[in-house]
Amino acid sequence: MNGNLRPQHSSGAWSDGAPMRNLPREESVRRLGATDEDANPPSTSITERATRKVNRIRQFEGLRGYSSRATLAIKYLNYFLLILLCCGLTGYLTKGVRFASGGGTFMLFSVAVITVSGAVATLFYVNLRNELVERVRHYVFGIILIPGTLLAMTLRAFQEWEWANEGSLGGTLRGALPVVFLASVVLPAIVFVKEIVGIRTLHRSKLDDEESVQLWTRQDGLQR
Amino acid sequence: MDALANGLVTVFNGLQTLLDGLLTPVTLMGIAIGAALVWIALIELDELNRQGTKPEIERGR
Question: Is residue A44 part of a domain?
């Protein structure tokens, strides 16, 4: 028995109303010594489950529970709009720029590759989910979208300024900037996929058993 | 009967135009990004829900 706590009818909550952890229902009610009716609750409708979920949030998290979930939804909506905005802006700015026209489509493609492969990777690397989400965010916004859009603005400015079309420096920059743009927009997608495919290898220890045990038991000599 | 056939042809032409307009690579990439972001948001939501549940502590029997 688990103290004096009893499951509260079929809601999956403790007798004090707190929700139970995500144990299989049969296992949790078995531990609590519940009846067969508790172990096999009648199937519930979607509306009932949604209502229960909302009530549970209100009961245990209050308004903060609602606001944190609303913030999450708005955050991801903003991510999507920001992706579209940056890609559209980049597409507009790179229109007609030599070696970089269609930059917005390339950017959208890279972001699609990274988000989709990141989402698929969360299915396979369940224990690394939070880290994967962070990586996706870092690659999409920190490497591709914002630097790529700034580079597209620079490219456009160089296209417009007359001094940039004269002299060896101008020629070098005109030739180099599209390469830098494509390298910062397209290559990260390939690097990300490579990183995700080998993420288990990156985290795997290269030590053999004897070395690991020596290290863990502090017999490695490093303490002297 | 001709009016019915003409109406159906018009509806199907409209559908085809709509599909041609929507099923472009750019739109498909946008849909893929949206779906992936929804999945990632659900993962974060799951984490929020997990934090909102009471931890179960094994007690002495």
Answer: yes
